[in-house]
Specification:
By secondary structure, this protein is mainly alpha-helical. It has a single domain, classed as ABC transporter involved in vitamin B12 uptake, BtuC (Orthogonal Bundle), CATH 1.10.3470. It contains eleven helices and two strands, in the order H-H-H-H-E-E-H-H-H-H-H-H-H. The protein has helices at 3-34, 41-59, 63-84, 94-117, 142-164, 166-176, 178-183, 188-213, 221-235, 240-260, 268-280; strands at residues 132-135, 138-141. The protein has a two-stranded antiparallel ribbon. A hairpin with a 2-residue loop joins strand 1 (132-135) and strand 2 (138-141). The protein is globular and about 60 Å long.
Length: 294
């Protein structure tokens, strides 16, 4: 393996990691605030990709411009899932039952997508999807560069929202001690609903970039959710920064193994790294031991 190939793999891994971090951020946010493990996250990403496909192919709307339509729709969808399903779960059973409920949501969405679009693979196309930037001897697909920049901007926006706004303080208070948050006048139910909406809206953006960089069909969500869960657990459940660091680390490792060894073994690094880290630090790289009061 040449040094150039290794550096190319590292650069590709960093750019791809930013996109995966964006897809994992919503999953991490929802768990941190609601104790909900959203198994439907992968299928929601695929749904976002298909909606981008419809707007682009059938209506001629640019992929990035289409996000102005899709993201608000996903925000409403996320709030609807929380209000209609998650809010009905008992506090003590919320985490375990959320897996079953969101899995059911995933099955329904997958069935609808299969009925409407069939099982053939499709991929999003645009001038910036099918061309590359040549710089310092590296070929960087424009969509990866644009996707990474968008992911960095949105993750920075999530950080500002969580740590620099009144709503963010309500989110963090609900995360640390829900009973105390209720006592000081925070509407925990509304905070959860909005957080779910934000988490799903961010997923829509990740779906567009995923669809532009990968061929997909209605079944593509299953491979995605396994990778995203590995990223979120490795980074620390509920940690946005941890999701970013874990995503970049795992995708760089994935691409380096694919180049240096074999693409067949590359996906294994997600779970091998997960086992190693959790054996040493069960709460993840950036997570904290559970001290939450209910």
């Amino acid at each position: 393996m040449s040094a150039t190939a290794l550096l190319q793999a590292i650069v590709d891994g960093v750019l791809t990691g930013g996109v995966y971090a964006l897809m994992a951020a919503g999953l991490s946010l929802v768990f941190g605030v609601m104790d909900v493990i959203n198994i439907a996250q992968g299928v929601l990403i695929v749904l976002g990709a298909y909606l981008s496909y419809v707007l682009s192919v059938h209506l001629g709307i640019d992929l990035f411009a289409g996000l102005l339509i899709i993201a608000p729709l996903f925000f409403v969808l996320g709030m609807g899932i929380e209000w209609g399903l998650m809010r009905r779960l008992r506090e003590g059973d919320r985490t375990a039952m959320s897996i079953l409920v969101t899995y059911a949501v995933a099955i329904v969405i997958e069935g609808v997508l299969t009925l409407v679009f069939g099982i053939d693979f499709v991929q999003l196309h645009a001038p910036y999807v099918d061309s590359s930037l040549h710089i310092f001897g590296f070929f960087l697909p424009y969509i990866y560069v644009l996707g990474f920049a968008l992911a960095a901007a949105l993750l920075a926006g999530l950080y500002v929202m969580l740590y620099r706004t009144k709503f963010g303080r309500a989110v963090r208070a609900s995360l640390q001690n829900r009973m105390a948050a209720d006592l000081v006048g925070i509407n925990v139910a509304r905070t959860r609903t909005i957080s779910m909406g934000i988490g799903v809206a961010v997923t829509a953006v990740g779906g567009m970039v995923f669809g532009a960089t990968n061929a997909f069909n209605p079944n593509s969500g299953y491979d995605l959710i396994s990778r995203l869960l590995a990223i979120v657990i490795l980074g620390g459940m509920g940690s946005i920064g941890g999701a970013m660091a874990a995503a970049v680390f795992l995708l760089v490792l994935n691409d380096v193994v694919a180049v240096a060894w074999s693409p067949v073994w590359a996906p294994l690094v997600f779970f091998a790294a997960l086992v190693v880290v959790l054996s040493v630090k069960p709460e993840g790289l950036f997570g904290k031991p559970p001290v939450r009061a209910q």
